[in-house]
Design a protein that fits this description.
CATH class of the domain at 2-134 and 167-192 and 253-266: Alpha Beta
Number of helices: 11
CATH superfamily of the domain at 2-134 and 167-192 and 253-266: NAD(P)-binding Rossmann-like Domain
Bound molecules: NADP nicotinamide-adenine-dinucleotide phosphate
CATH topology of the domain at 2-134 and 167-192 and 253-266: Rossmann fold
Oligomer: single chain
Strand order of the largest sheet: 3-2-1-4-5-6-9
Number of strands: 11
CATH architecture of the domain at 2-134 and 167-192 and 253-266: 3-Layer(aba) Sandwich
Radius of gyration: 19 Å
Distance between the termini: 42 Å
Shape: globular
Length: 282
Amino acid sequence: MTILVTGATGTIGRHLVRTLTDAGEHVRAVSRAPGDAALPDGVDVVGADLADPSTLGAHLFRDVDRVFVFPADKGVPDLVEAAVTAGIERFVVLSSLAAAAEFPRDLGSASYVHHHAVEEAVRSRTDGWTFLRPGTFSTNLLSWAWPIKAGGPVRAPYVLSAQAPIHEADIADAAAAALTRDDLAGTTHALTGPQSLTRVEQVAAIAAGIGRDVAIVEITPEEFREEVGRFVPDDIVSMLLRYWSDTVTEPDRVRPGVTDLTGRPGRTLEQWAVDHRADFLS
Ligand SMILES: NC(=O)c1ccc[n+]([C@@H]2O[C@H](COP(=O)([O-])OP(=O)(O)OC[C@H]3O[C@@H](n4cnc5c(N)ncnc54)[C@H](OP(=O)(O)O)[C@@H]3O)[C@@H](O)[C@H]2O)c1
C-alpha cells in the first residue's frame, strides 16, 4: 500500500513515517523543503506546499491508497480536493480534542476554530475519514526545558490543575493503525496520555525521567501572561490559562483512543522525559 504523509518531517510525522516503513508500507512524504527532509531510505520525498495549490499536482497522488492529513495552517481543502479528484477514498486526519467542543472553553478557541475547519474540509468531500483528536501534547512541556537546563525551578500558574499529556510517538502509532486498518472510516478517536497528572506531578515525572531534581514555583496568571506574552500570541495565552484554570476543578480525563487503536496503553510522561533527556539536560 502507498500512503501519502503530509507533515512527514514534523514531530509526529517522523515517527509515523518510520512506523509505516518498518511495517512494510510504501510512504510518499510531503515537505516544503524535500532536500532537507532527512527521512529513512526508501521513502519517496516530494516537494509541495499545502498553502500553494499549484504545487499539489497529480504526481503527488499517483498510486496512493491513503492520505495522512496534517492540519497545516492553510491548504487542507485544496489537498483533499486534489486527492479526491485523483480517486483517493481514505483519509486519516490529525485534529484536536478541542474540535469535539466538549467544554465551553473550546468553542471559539483558536484550536477549535482551526481543527473544526480542517475536519469539515475532509468530511464535506468524502465519507472515508478517520479523525484523530489528541489532547495536550507532552512536547508542550518542552517550554520547561530552558529553566530546567539552567538549573532553576519551573515557574507555572495553576500548579494543581491536571492534564493527560500524550507522547508524540503514541499519536503516530495511533495514526499508523488508523491508516492500515480497513474498519475505521467515519470514526473519531480521542487520544490522551495514560495518566492525568497535576503540573506538580508532571514536573516530578520529568525529574524522574531525566534523573535530576526539579522544583516548581507557582506564579499568578498575570505573571505568566507577562513572562510569555513576548513570545506567544495573546489568544493562545488566554486559551492556555483558561484550560489550566478549568482543569483545577475538572482534571483532564484519560481517553481510551491509544489503547483502542494500538492494542497497548500509551507511554507515560516519565517515559517521554527519558526519550527527551537531551532536550532537558545541558
Ligand atoms: N500542541 C498540542 O497540544 C496539540 C494538541 C492537539 C493538536 N495539535 C496539532 O498538532 C500539530 C503539531 O504537530 P507536530 O508537532 O507533528 O508538528 P510540527 O513538528 O510543527 O511539524 C509541522 C509539519 O507540518 C508541515 N507543514 C507545515 N506547513 C506546511 C505546508 N504549508 N505545506 C506542507 N507541509 C507543511 C511541516 O513540513 P515542512 O516544514 O517539511 O514543509 C512539518 O512536517 C499542531 O499544529 C496542531 O494542529 C497540537
